[in-house]
């Protein structure tokens, strides 16, 4: 057992109390450095490696304690602010992230700027020590529970599109911010659209400097792809929701232990956690494990999953793999598509039935006697999502081609033409 493992287990023995509120427990965990163990010691971390950080999460889970605050604060906002923020900004935001006091969402994509994120049109206009913000965002995971958002806004329309963007820590709980859930074909509403009308953000909430938001955003996207990719982990997620909106902070911490949680990208727990083992067990249950086509699919699924795991181990061991986050993201999309095809092939006609609420789910389970079927159909309906969010598969391939393989970019003038002169949605 390593020194940090011994230290952590002793700390848990002394500090974990299931009767604490979530707020009290996360405050202890965050201030101790165990909520974000890979962060620098001076900023609420332990300075551990990524591999050691994954082990910390597993030890906390196996001990039976509530894990660190999940969501996009710890996954994206915190690491980005730690990289680009001033010391004053780190003081202002990082403690509330590691203690779960504030929840975060990501205000990047827009109806006319998804794959072409740099074409975004949400405007921020300086007004003294503040900026006035107007625009619309979409596909905002967790927006309905967020205190703060990572906002990309156009602060200079007279320069090329990549040069006139700024990155703000934006108050979601203010007049002029409307969050509308988007119901998906799974029956869930994991994403939102956000309408911003004459909202305000402080000038000192600009992370990384005015008009330098594209560089800051790429840091956030790199953390996102690393977290979403095949083998990316996710052990740090907690069943409780951080921030002041959900109401979880004042609930008993012990009531959240042992629950399965949603994946960072918004996938339901059954989808985010299901790997080859679940599909293989399903095949045995339905007597399809001897079917040669199913067996071939299971072998391919196992192979892809193991490759993703090996690449993660290489990265955790310090190997620099150019484009690893993009490759992992593509691999995850392929794995989920294969799980969908295998799962539905195993279910047969049963795969045409799906429940869109708890009452329907119970009725369907009672009628079929196969509760596992609902996990497969939800996974199947959700499977197109990962190939879109966090950057589409096509965007990942373009990045790998241009930045890793050195292939030429598509000819255009968007690097030299002012954003205001570019065609919209062109």
Please characterize this protein's 3D structure.
This protein is of the alpha+beta class. It is globular, with a radius of gyration of 22 Å. Among the domains are: 3-100 and 225-250, Butyryl-Coa Dehydrogenase, subunit A, domain 1, CATH 1.10.540.10; 267-391, no CATH class. It contains 13 helices and 7 strands. It is 42% helix and 12% strand. The chain has a 4-stranded antiparallel beta sheet with strand order 2-3-7-6, with no helix packed on it. The protein has a 3-stranded mixed beta sheet with strand order 1-4-5.
N/C terminus separation: 57 Å
Q: How many β strands by DSSP? A: 7
Q: Which ranges are low-confidence, i.e. pLDDT below 50, for 5 or more consecutive residues?
A: 260-274
Instruction: Write out the strand line-up for the largest beta sheet, numbering strands in chain order.
Output: 2-3-7-6
How large, in whole angstroms, is the Cα Rg? 22 Å
Task: Note the total helix count.
Answer: 13
Biggest sheet details: 4 strands, antiparallel
Name the average pLDDT: 89
Helix content: 40-55%
Global shape = globular
Q: Element order, helices and strands?
A: HHHHHEEEEEEEHHHHHHHH
Strand-pairing-aware structural class: alpha+beta
What proportion strand?
A: 5-15%
């Amino acid at each position: 057992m390593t020194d940090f493992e011994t230290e952590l287990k002793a700390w848990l023995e002394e500090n974990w109390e299931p009767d604490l509120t979530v707020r009290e427990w996360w405050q202890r965990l965050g201030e101790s450095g165990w909520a974000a163990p890979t962060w620098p010691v001076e900023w609420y971390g332990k300075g551990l490696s990524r591999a050691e950080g994954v082990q910390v999460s597993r030890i906390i889970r196996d001990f039976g304690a509530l894990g660190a605050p999940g969501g996009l604060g710890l996954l994206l906002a915190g690491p980005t602010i730690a990289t680009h923020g001033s010391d004053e900004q780190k003081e202002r935001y990082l403690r509330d992230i590691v203690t779960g006091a504030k929840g975060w969402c990501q205000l990047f994509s827009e109806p006319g700027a998804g794959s072409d994120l740099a074409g975004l049109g949400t405007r921020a206009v300086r007004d003294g020590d503040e900026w006035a913000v107007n625009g619309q965002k979409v596909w905002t995971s967790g927006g309905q529970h967020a205190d703060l958002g990572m906002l990309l806004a156009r602060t200079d329309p007279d320069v090329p599109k990549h040069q006139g963007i700024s990155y703000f820590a934006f108050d979601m709980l203010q007049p002029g911010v409307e969050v509308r859930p988007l119901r998906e074909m799974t029956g869930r509403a994991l994403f939102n659209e956000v309408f911003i009308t004459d909202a305000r953000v402080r000038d000192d909430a600009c992370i990384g400097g005015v008009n330098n938001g594209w560089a800051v955003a790429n840091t956030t996207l790199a953390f996102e792809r690393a977290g979403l990719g095949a083998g990316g982990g996710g052990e740090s997620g907690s069943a409780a929701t951080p921030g002041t909106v959900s109401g979880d902070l004042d609930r008993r911490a012990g009531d959240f232990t042992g629950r399965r949680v949603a994946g960072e990208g918004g996938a339901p727990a059954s989808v985010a956690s299901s790997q080859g083992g679940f599909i293989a067990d399903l095949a045995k249950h339905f007597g399809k494990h001897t079917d040669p086509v199913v067996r071939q699919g299971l072998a391919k699924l196992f192979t892809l999953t193991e490759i993703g795991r090996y690449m993660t181990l290489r990265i955790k061991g310090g190997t620099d793999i150019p484009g690893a986050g993009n490759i992992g993201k593509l691999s995850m999309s392929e794995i989920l598509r294969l799980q969908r095809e295998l799962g539905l092939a195993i279910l047969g006609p049963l795969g045409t039935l799906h429940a869109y609420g708890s009452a329907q789910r119970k009725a369907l389970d009672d009628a079929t006697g196969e509760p596992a079927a609902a996990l497969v159909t939800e996974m199947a309906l959700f499977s197109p999502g990962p190939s879109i969010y966090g950057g589409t598969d096509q965007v990942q391939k373009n990045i790998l081609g241009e930045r890793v393989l050195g292939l030429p970019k598509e000819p255009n003038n968007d690097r030299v033409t002012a954003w205001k002169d570019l065609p919209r949605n062109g």
